[in-house]
């Protein structure tokens, strides 16, 4: 028997005959599914919809992440020995092409806001057109920033780098759809997401940001590498403190 399918049918109060009629197959076919046969892909989607379940919960063996050959690994469309090796053209194209979502998580990443002379205004326009933008920076006052500064042998400059990046956000701080937060989490990588494309930089001990390796990912399934880093972003974003831009007596932001 296939207990997952059987349990889902019981929860939905649907018997074999009703399910067969709903997905337009013979009742004998449904009984074969209950005996262990896996439906064809198109039919799996119809059954999952009829039962209000996900396809992967009914037939875990069809999950791409545990299939031989790896749609999960196929999500890696580029790899670089160092973040500094990522072509500037790639960064720019990712920023320009994003229309729905930009999520960035790191300590300080002023280079993103320096990709174009009007990068902040460009991102703000995307927000006004319905895109969601979330930028998570490390809290420059937090103890873990001082620890990261010491680990990367930055001679006390990391807090200043973060403040410099924050000083560049300009109109983003007051644009609807754009949220900026400060985190106090020890990071093991930075995440730069642009719609369903992403650059991830896994951290190396004592290496600085531009020296870390980088992976260029494309989302192909809900179970791959992309989803793992996507989930990490969500977990850390849930802990951020909203950043409130301050203005000093000279009218400059800080």
Please tell me about this protein's structure.
With 254 residues, this protein is of the alpha+beta class. 39% of the residues lie in helices and 17% in strands. The protein contains twelve helices and eight strands. The chain has helices at 3-12, 16-23, 27-34, 41-51, 55-58, 71-74, 88-97, 110-113, 119-128, 143-151, 158-166, 225-237, and strands at 76-80, 101-105, 132-138, 178-183, 189-194, 197-202, 214-218, 241-242. The chain has an eight-stranded mixed beta sheet with strand order 1-7-6-5-2-3-4-8. Helix 2 (16-23) packs across helix 3 (27-34). The protein is elongated, with a radius of gyration of 23 Å. The termini are far apart. The relative contact order is 0.14. Mean pLDDT is 89; it is low at 247-254.
Feature tags:
254 residues; alpha+beta; 8-stranded mixed β-sheet; disordered C terminus
Could you give the order of the helices and strands?
HHHHHHEHEHHEHHEEEEHE
N-end to C-end Cα span: 64 Å
Unreliable stretches: 247-254
Q: Structural class, from helix and strand content?
A: alpha+beta
Helix content: 25-40%
Give the overall silhouette. Answer: elongated
Number of strands: 8
Major sheet size, sense and barrel closure:
8 strands, mixed
**Percent strand:** 15-25%
Q: From the alpha carbons, calculate the radius of gyration and give it in angstroms.
A: 23 Å
Summarize the structure.
The chain has helices at 3-12, 16-23, 27-34, 41-51, 55-58, 71-74, 88-97, 110-113, 119-128, 143-151, 158-166, 225-237; strands spanning 76-80, 101-105, 132-138, 178-183, 189-194, 197-202, 214-218, 241-242. With 254 residues, the protein is of the alpha+beta class. It has an eight-stranded mixed sheet.
